[in-house]
Amino acid sequence: MLQPGPATKVTIYLNQDTGARHGFLSDEILSLLQAKDVGVAGATVLRPYAGFGEHRHLHKANAGDVSGLHLPVIIFFVDTATKVNALLPALLDMVTDGLVEAHPTEVLKSARGTEKVIS
After folding, report:
1. DSSP 86
2. How far apart are CA 45 and CA 26, in angstroms?
3. Domain ranges of the chain
4. pLDDT for the residue 48
5. Angle at 86 between CA 10 and CA 100, to 5 degrees
6. Is the CATH number 3.30.70.120 carried by domain 5-106?
7. How far apart are CA 113 and CA 95, in angstroms?
8. 32 Rama sector, left if φ>0, alpha if ψ -120 to 50, beta otherwise
């Protein structure tokens, strides 16, 4: 579990249809982050409604055409600077179309409950 204190937050901006060696890039990045030898504390993928990049072409979820297939994806993760710095070369090598940014942050609390919600 990530301990309170200094950390680094990494944000990766991609398109959902950006390919990689074995499928989609967002899935390969999640596999990297989840790997036991890397083992970041956790990661989140968001699929926004709309967005545009350097090409200035707006892609929207309800576009009904090809532009609706090229939607943005954002991946966030937070971990220690040491762990982030160790995995950045592999991560940066994977991202062939997108943007990767990192910011220093501070973890105030990281809690893992024992109760499970049953639906």
Report:
1. H
2. 8
3. 5-106
4. 84
5. 30
6. yes
7. 34
8. alpha
